[in-house]
């Protein structure tokens, strides 16, 4: 049983009803931790509920109307339909954006974990400069997309950009590609830049998690005859799975923020190769004044993300940590 | 299976600017198939010695040889030593079978089938065939311990290295595992170095005990040698539970005097002491004879301060009468003995059972008369 | 040859006992050091490009590569001056709402995590799920409801009727800033709750029981035990939230609707002023980017260690 | 479509009348606040925070406050995103019924949604007479939200010409090409080929990171190849498939001559390719001249040249900036005055000269303007004005978004037929 | 300071759909100032019993009374019980002084000065005055243990509750703390319930021992009672180290037979057994008499399988000769005895020392003849 359940049951049992009379029950109910802990969880719940779920619900209602232009919609049941959702089905822009969004949520998250892990392993094996290099990798995390978007526009410049300059210097001219221009590379380039920005976060959590693995496991593997790579691959990395899950959740949140990066670099029109639902929603609503359609995209995005996160929640629930 | 030689092995750690000498000029020979226990207080360098054999620490000076061939500089993989860690260090994400197979996969060319067969065999030996598909987290402490052993055994190593493998178990289980480990080692006949700070483990399990203190070897010998003929005060105090009683005396010819009493020794004993005047008298609690009242010349009148009952025996904390001293002499009496805190009794140190040490160097000057008794019933 | 020396220094070798060291400091450390340093150089290169640009004259910018540092006659502080002039009035606004919002979201998140970890009732799992899902809210999707909401709630009127504006420090811009504080707090709660909850799971529950036996109630336990023990996680959440809120653009854009500093506009809106469409002045923009990033960079460099420690739980 | 637009426009103007009554009453409020401290605050939002626009804006405000000292201007810019940020803000505010006094926007069809919502006031009373007489037709059309049927709802301030070609004289001479005599876009393509063969640098500077520049190029090609009728046909939703496709094909060919980094540079970086010596020619709006003028040691006439885009001589593709008049209006009197000021020759002179655009009015003294702008002004007065598709003047927000979206697809996928279809579909939205 | 009554206390946990009965109808009385040790194997309900007293668990059935007043339903704050946790549960962010003051601040109205004085006093009692301003993390395990004790003592509670407070310490320190705890409790005279699974602790520290198994109380009595007169096989086996030997026998009149040997009992003993035929013979290792060879009728010829040397004594694992059986009888002999694995010897169970249990119910039918001996020297 997890520690938390123990805490729960202690606190719960500590003053749950023991008296059997009605009066006593009410009294002890009022004294129960459920009631007494209310001041702790109720205000944040209300605030979060109002803004987040109120907003989501409102957004959903808008998606049922025909709201466009700059005339406020009439919220009447008779106006409600799912037209915007059917429209989505036939919209090639939506298909492209949905595909890219899923790719970003899944592939970017995985890559980010991978890079974070590699960085963590490297930093963990340093004898010196650990803390300074750790800070270096974490620095981009502090910056806003408005800034990093511009940086990467330069980095990717096929002529004067750092990336291609580097490849040319290394004699790998074949790899000096048109990163943002070539539609088939664009999304990958976006992910790479995002990894640069968020890899440090993954690294820092992985580092923390690596520290919890007893030194004996490395030594046992060594004595067992495993080399450096086998030790990590077979012994260490599998033990990081729960850290990976929790990093993945946060990284997925970040991947939704790719909106700001794309918006900085491509405006509201990254093209089908890199369009994502967040950008499309903004474009549709705030450039084309098609609020209802934008709202519908927003609802789909939220539900879709939730579906991707559900396995995580279930995993947490199974482990009794929800 | 091999013999192992420590040749003046020294290990220094750099700690900032200072140097820590963890092991100092350790020399000993461990015979093929022997079960050697290294014992000593915390920080005395036991683990470090073991890890040098495993190849997890480098050797600063001296040499280590297996079957006469130096293993200095070889990587752990090349040493064919198997290690059991105090924390077990089982890989939590692998099943028991995978844990046990891992070393074989990494360091041998055996086919999966052979590995499977071997693991099954060892599983049988250790009586854990039904656990093979579980994860370590689903096992009890004792079962984990067994798996950790299995992981070492399965590799059929030249040397077993065990670092306090039983210290995470509770008393009962520890006693069981002790016997089992011993039986297994005998069966397999693999040269074994076993590290512990628990002298009971050292006594009961080992062929020979190596006692270390402050990085230095104090004594190496069979349990009985170490118990009955400790080289010095340290060994005398460390081996045996409860500890040997030590009494500081000044000697004048055949008289050992303390503030509380005088103790006359025989001439032959006195001769063994040569010219030493600063003497520590050592006597084990079970050798202290408690009598209803002092009758013989050397008997001392004492008060029973505390009675610690263990069932079969009681430990009496005896304080010389009319003394404020808190330094009690512990004497063991039969568990059925009617004696209570506050009683006044006599305490006797039979001369044939006393140890005498040089008070300055701590070196043993005289051991009890070596007497191996014929079978006599135990009168606890 | 030079490389070896560098590496030797890096891994802490000195020339005596080199052989011994070579065994101890294994190859993997050397390789790790080389790789990590190379990656680190790559990692900072975009920032480096930004810095060099910010110090270059416009013509130097046109004629040189971003990563080459400016020569003496190409250096100018002009861009910094321009950027500072544009941004400085709004930097303060940013801090005024970022810090309280960071504190509120962290405190409320810690409240929620405590309240939801320490009690057992039927709806608890559902509520926690709701908190976690809330993290995934696409924020572009609720801009419209959000601005509707704040237009319906006449905060200015409320503040006026509370007599807020007669306070000595009050400023009309505070209406907007308070709106931002509340909004960011509300949206930050969910991630803060998640982070705190993960941390509270690792706390030794015996401590809570000991406190109960010592006579502490739910509040006293929070106040005297949980809160002080949450310090490392507060550092993490603070840093996390500070970055997220400070760098936020969309809410401020829609809720404040202009980069007028006296209306409470944050620095992110003002930064956009340096990038106004048809002709972009990179030098100013880069200088602006760095000025904007100063607070977050300070936070990371000063508290990065705490952040790293805090996430170890 | 047009009909219902018109009728809703009528409705709008009915409401307009009603709310000008409202305006009157709020006017009264204003009056009372006038009585209090004698000043009114005009809230002005725009995105000119940098470069020539910022200087022009300063001039404009300065002139206004000199003229109306008791009207204070609350200068509240929303920069970034080439105006999209401001537009997002304004739409929110209009939806909330809480617009600023006025704001910078592209007049023309871009305002159609506001007109439909009855959110803009009929300001014919300001236009009638002197302003109407002195404004060019294109500017007046954009003041009517791009539709002759609408009343005047916005005051255009300046005009940019979108159909231009710029070139680097040294390079062109090296290649032996005469840029001024290119007959149409196809010939331009041949010229590009020739440049490509002769020179090491790219024949064309073009930004493809954002789709509006491609849309702008295509727009120019359509007019250059098939004249104003094709443009009008396209705008009216007629079937001009073959014309659209041909223009797309040409555009696609041209994109092939762009600099290698076209897809990752913004429009400003693309313009700088000329002074940097990385590209020979450039199809851009005349705002690009601002960048070229700004480059050191790069002089108009000596180092770089300008001409109308091939095949569009005599056509003036208009991109205006102006100020819509929202209702309800927080400061009707002051906004009236602002509108009058913006419509004045003095204001347009002060603004347009630093901005690098020509005035909407034809009676402005151009003597202090650059030679290039003087030429442009002449062309504006003599040529046919059409509203640009790449910005807001000729298309509604919906249409504009769809056109750009189609162009972004075109850039990535290069499918001429599909793009032509989406472009034409967009215009029927 | 108060007496404490468990009145048919039952605790059930719900675990999914099933119920776990952690404690079943536990009735016992703990006297004012008594030191009661609850001992039993893991999972037997020790901790649960303790936590019910503390108010950390509710009581499913039955009642708990302090000084005759039911404390059921009262919150932990209202019970005036102090608890020492296995993990110490010191507040890591508070100094030692703050740790000790916290309970007083929360549950009393004492002024800061009074609290300070009281903490200083207790600091002196525990000999940790110099630690008061340190943080727990800066203390050694033993010091932390002392602070945890101090935190409990300072509140001057009616009852002390301690849940395996020594199990995180190493053997030597544990032995020291044992004595100290005992001394303190005697000094303070506070009713104490102490939970452990270590029978040595139970024996040496307690006034009385309560032995639990499977949620049920097996026996409550003084250490000597529990050792010499165990109620049943469980208690007999649990108390004492090494464990009592048990031999299953079938009885026919005065003869107890096993597969290996017959054992004749006297008539008087036989009468105590009444009609029971299925008998378990129990004998403690120290009561097994090992003789060079069987001489008396009941003597059994055995082989020494293993010799476990402890120094002062050896445990011999004795296997009846010509038998494959692995079930050895353990006999303890003097440490100096010359005996080796493989020797053939005789084993004798003196009738006055045997325990006889009913083979079906496990209940004790006959205890050894109660004999408290006068002081006799310990002949280990
Ligand atoms: N990596 C290291 N760096 C510096 N000093 C070390 C290192 N490892 C051990 N030491 C020091 O070497 C000495 C011996 O340590 P070692 O671990 O061998 O003791 P031990 O006998 O195993 O003790 P324990 O019973 O506590 O495990 C100690 O003083 C310890 O502090
Ligand atoms: N909160 C709980 N929920 C369900 N079952 C529980 C709970 N707490 C204890 N139990 C069960 O009750 C029984 C008694 O547990 P308890 O902790 O009292 O044992 P214990 O004697 O203290 O054991 P140990 O020596 O291992 O500490 C065990 O079977 C345990 O699994
Ligand atoms: Mg050790
Ligand atoms: Mg327990």
What does the model show?
The complex is a heteropentamer, with 1 copy of chain A (322 residues), 2 copies of chain B (380 residues), 1 copy of chain C (313 residues) and 1 copy of chain D (429 residues). Chain A is 72% helix and 0% strand. With 322 residues, chain A is mostly helical. The longest helix of chain A has 33 residues, at 92-124. Chain A starts with a helix and ends with a helix. With 380 residues, chain B is of the alpha+beta class. Chain B is 24% helix and 33% strand. In chain B, the strands form 4 sheets. Chain B has a 6-stranded mixed β-sheet with strand order 6-7-8-3-9-10, with helices on both faces. In chain B, helix 2 crosses helix 3 (112-125) and helix 2 runs parallel beside helix 4. With 313 residues, chain C is mainly alpha-helical. In chain C, helix 9 packs antiparallel against helix 12. The radius of gyration of chain C is 25 Å and the shape is globular. The model of chain C is unreliable at 1-8 and 10-24 (pLDDT under 50). Chain D is an alpha/beta fold. In chain D, helix 2 (51-67) runs antiparallel to helix 15 (345-355) and helix 10 packs antiparallel against helix 11. In chain D, the strands form 3 sheets. A 4-stranded mixed β-sheet of chain D has the order 10-4-9-11, with helices on both faces. In chain D, strands 6-7-5-8 form a 4-stranded mixed β-sheet. Mean pLDDT of chain D is 86; it is low at 1-36. The radius of gyration of chain D is 22 Å and the shape is globular. One adenosine-5'-triphosphate is lined by residues 13, 15, 20, 22, 40, 42-48, 197 of chain E. Chains B, E: It is a peripheral membrane protein. Chains B, E: It catalyses: L-arabinose(out) + ATP + H2O = L-arabinose(in) + ADP + phosphate + H(+); D-xylose(out) + ATP + H2O = D-xylose(in) + ADP + phosphate + H(+). Chains B, E: Belongs to the ABC transporter superfamily. Carbohydrate uptake transporter-1 (CUT1) (TC 3.A.1.1) family. Chains B, E: Part of the ABC transporter complex XacGHIJK involved in the uptake of xylose and arabinose. Responsible for energy coupling to the transport system.
């Amino acid at each position: 049983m997890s520690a938390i359940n123990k805490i729960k049951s202690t606190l719960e049992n500590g003053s749950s009803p023991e008296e059997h009379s009605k009066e006593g029950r009410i009294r002890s109910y009022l004294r129960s931790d459920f009631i007494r802990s209310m001041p702790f969880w109720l205000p944040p719940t209300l605030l979060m509920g109002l803004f987040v779920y109120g907003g989501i619900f409102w957004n959903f209602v808008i998606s049922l109307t025909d709201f466009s232009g700059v005339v406020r919609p009439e919220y009447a049941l008779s106006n409600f339909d799912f037209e915007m959702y059917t429209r989505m089905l036939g919209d090639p822009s939506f298909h492209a954006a949905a595909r890219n969004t899923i790719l970003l949520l899944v592939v970017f998250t995985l890559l980010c974990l991978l890079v974070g892990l590699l960085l963590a392993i490297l930093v963990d094996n340093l004898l010196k400069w650990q803390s300074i290099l750790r800070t270096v990798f974490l620095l981009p995390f502090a910056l806003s997309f408005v800034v990093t978007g511009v940086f990467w526009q330069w980095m990717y410049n096929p002529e004067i950009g750092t990336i291609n300059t580097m490849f040319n210097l290394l004699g790998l001219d074949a790899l000096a590609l048109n990163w943002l221009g070539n539609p088939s590379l664009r999304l990958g380039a976006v992910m790479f830049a995002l990894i640069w920005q968020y890899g440090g976060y993954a690294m820092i959590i992985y580092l923390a998690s690596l520290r919890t693995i007893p030194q004996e496991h490395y030594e046992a593997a060594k004595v067992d005859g495993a080399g450096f790579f086998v030790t990590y691959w077979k012994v260490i990395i599998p033990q990081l799975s729960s850290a990976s899950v929790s990093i993945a959740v946060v990284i997925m949140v970040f991947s939704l923020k790719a909106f700001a990066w794309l918006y900085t670099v491509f405006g509201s029109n990254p093209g089908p190769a890199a369009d994502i639902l967040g950008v499309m929603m903004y474009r549709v609503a705030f450039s084309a004044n098609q609020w209802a359609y934008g709202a519908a995209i927003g609802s789909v995005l939220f539900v879709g993300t939730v579906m991707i996160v559900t396995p995580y929640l279930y995993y947490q629930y199974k482990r009794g940590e929800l | 299976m091999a013999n192992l030689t420590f040749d003046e092995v020294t290990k220094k750690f750099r700690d900032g600017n200072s140097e820590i000498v963890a092991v100092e000029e350790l020399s000993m020979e461990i015979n093929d198939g022997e079960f050697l226990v290294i014992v000593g207080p915390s920080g005395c360098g036991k683990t470090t010695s073991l890890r040098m054999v495993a190849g997890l620490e480098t050797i600063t000076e001296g040499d280590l040889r297996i079957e006469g061939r130096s293993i200095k500089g070889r990587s752990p993989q090349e040493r064919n030593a198997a290690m059991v860690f105090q924390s077990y260090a089982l890989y939590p994400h692998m099943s028991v079978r995978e844990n046990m197979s891992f070393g074989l996969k990494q360091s041998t060319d055996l086919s999966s089938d052979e590995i499977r067969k071997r693991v099954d065999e060892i599983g049988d030996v250790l009586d854990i065939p039904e656990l093979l598909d579980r994860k370590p987290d689903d096992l009890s402490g004792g079962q984990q311990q067994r798996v950790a052993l299995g992981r070492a055994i399965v590799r059929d190593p030249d040397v077993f290295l065990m670092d306090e493998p039983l210290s995470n178990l509770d008393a009962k289980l520890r006693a069981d595992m002790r016997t089992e480990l011993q039986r297994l080692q005998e069966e397999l006949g693999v040269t074994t170095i076993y590290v512990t700070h628990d002298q009971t483990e050292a006594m009961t399990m080992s062929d020979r005990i190596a006692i270390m203190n402050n990085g230095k070897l104090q004594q190496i010998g069979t349990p009985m040698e170490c118990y009955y003929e400790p080289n010095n005060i340290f060994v005398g105090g460390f081996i045996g539970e409860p500890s040997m009683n030590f009494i500081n005396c000044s000697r004048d010819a055949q008289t050992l005097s303390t503030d509380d009493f005088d103790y006359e020794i025989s001439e032959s004993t006195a001769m063994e002491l040569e010219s030493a005047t600063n003497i520590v008298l050592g006597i084990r609690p079970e050798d202290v004879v408690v009598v209803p009242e002092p009758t013989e010349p050397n008997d001392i009148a004492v008060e029973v301060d505390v009675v610690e009952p263990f069932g079969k025996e009681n430990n009496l904390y005896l304080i010389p009468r009319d003394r404020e001293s808190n330094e009690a002499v512990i004497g063991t009496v039969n568990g059925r003995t009617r004696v209570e805190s506050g009683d006044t009794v006599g305490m006797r140190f039979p001369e044939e059972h006393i140890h005498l040490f040089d008070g300055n160097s701590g070196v043993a000057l005289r051991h009890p008369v070596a007497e191996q008794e014929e079978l006599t019933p135990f009168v606890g | 040859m030079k490389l070896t020396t560098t590496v030797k220094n890096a891994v802490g070798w000195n020339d005596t006992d080199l052989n011994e060291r070579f065994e101890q400091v294994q190859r993997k450390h050397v390789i790790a050091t080389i790789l990590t340093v190379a990656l680190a150089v790559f990692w900072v290169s975009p920032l480096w490009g930004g810095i060099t640009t910010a110090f270059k004259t416009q013509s130097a910018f046109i004629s040189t590569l971003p990563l080459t540092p400016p020569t003496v006659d190409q250096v100018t502080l002009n861009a910094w001056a321009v950027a500072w002039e544009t941004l400085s009035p709004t930097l303060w606004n940013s801090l005024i709402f970022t810090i309280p919002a960071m504190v509120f979201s962290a405190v409320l998140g810690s409240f929620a995590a405590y309240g939801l970890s320490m009690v057992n009732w039927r709806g608890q799992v559902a509520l926690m799920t709701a908190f976690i899902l809330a993290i995934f809210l696409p924020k572009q999707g609720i801009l419209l409801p959000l601005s509707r909401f704040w237009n319906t709630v006449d905060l200015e009127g409320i503040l006026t009727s509370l007599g807020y504006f007669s306070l000595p420090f009050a400023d009309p811009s505070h209406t907007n800033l308070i709106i931002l504080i509340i909004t960011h707090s509300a949206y930050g709660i969910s991630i803060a709750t998640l982070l705190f909850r993960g941390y509270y799971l690792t706390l030794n529950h015996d401590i809570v029981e000991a406190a109960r036996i010592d006579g502490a109630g739910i509040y006293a336990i929070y106040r005297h035990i949980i809160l002080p023990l949450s310090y490392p996680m507060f550092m993490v959440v603070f840093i996390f939230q500070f970055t997220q809120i400070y760098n936020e653009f969309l809410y401020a854009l829609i809720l404040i609707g202009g980069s007028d500093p006296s209306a409470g506009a944050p620095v992110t809106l003002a930064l956009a002023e340096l990038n106004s469409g048809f002709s972009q002045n990179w030098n100013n923009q880069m200088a602006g980017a760095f000025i904007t990033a100063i607070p977050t960079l300070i936070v990371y460099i000063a508290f990065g260690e705490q952040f790293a420690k805090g996430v170890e739980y | 479509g047009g009909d219902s637009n018109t009728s809703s426009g009528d409705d709008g103007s009915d409401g307009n009348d009603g709310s000008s009554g409202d305006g009157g009453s709020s006017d009264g409020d204003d009056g009372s606040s006038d009585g209090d401290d004698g000043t009114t605050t005009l809230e002005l939002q725009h995105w000119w925070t940098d470069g020539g626009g910022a200087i022009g804006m300063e001039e404009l405000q300065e002139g206004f406050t000199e003229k109306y000292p008791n009207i204070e201007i609350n200068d509240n810019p929303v920069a970034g995103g080439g105006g999209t940020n401001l537009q997002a803000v304004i739409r929110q505010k209009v939806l909330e019924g809480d617009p600023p006094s006025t704001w910078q926007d592209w007049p023309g069809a871009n305002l159609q949604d506001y007109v439909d919502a009855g959110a803009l006031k009929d300001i014919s009373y300001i236009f009638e007479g002197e302003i109407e007489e002195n404004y060019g037709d294109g500017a007046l059309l954009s003041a009517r939200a791009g539709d002759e049927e609408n009343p005047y709802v916005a005051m255009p301030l300046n005009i940019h010409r979108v159909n231009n070609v710029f070139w680097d004289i040294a390079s062109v001479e090296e290649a032996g090409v005469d840029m001024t005599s290119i007959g149409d876009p196809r010939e331009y393509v041949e010229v590009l080929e020739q440049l490509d063969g002769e020179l090491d640098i790219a024949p064309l500077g073009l930004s493809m990171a954002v789709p509006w520049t491609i849309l702008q190029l295509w727009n120019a090609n359509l007019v250059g190849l098939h004249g104003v009728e094709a443009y009008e046909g396209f705008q009216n939703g007629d079937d001009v498939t073959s014309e659209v496709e041909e223009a797309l094909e040409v555009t696609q060919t041209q994109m092939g001559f762009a600099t290698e980094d076209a897809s990752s540079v913004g429009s400003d970086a693309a313009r700088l390719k000329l002074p940097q010596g990385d590209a020979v020619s450039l199809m851009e709006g005349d705002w690009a001249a601002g960048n070229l003028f700004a480059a050191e040691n790069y002089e108009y006439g000596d180092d770089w040249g300008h001409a109308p885009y091939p095949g569009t001589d005599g056509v003036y593709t208009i991109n205006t900036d102006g100020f819509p008049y929202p209702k309800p209006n927080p400061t009707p009197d002051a906004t009236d005055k602002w509108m009058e000021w913006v419509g004045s020759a003095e204001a347009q002179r002060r603004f347009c000269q630093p901005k690098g655009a020509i005035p909407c009015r034809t009676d402005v003294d151009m003597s202090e303007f650059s030679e290039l702008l003087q030429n442009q002004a002449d062309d504006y007065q003599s040529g046919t004005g059409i509203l640009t598709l790449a910005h807001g003047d000729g298309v509604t927000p919906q249409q504009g978004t769809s056109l750009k979206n189609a162009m972004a697809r075109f850039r990535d996928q290069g499918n001429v037929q599909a793009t032509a279809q989406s472009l034409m579909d967009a215009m029927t939205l």
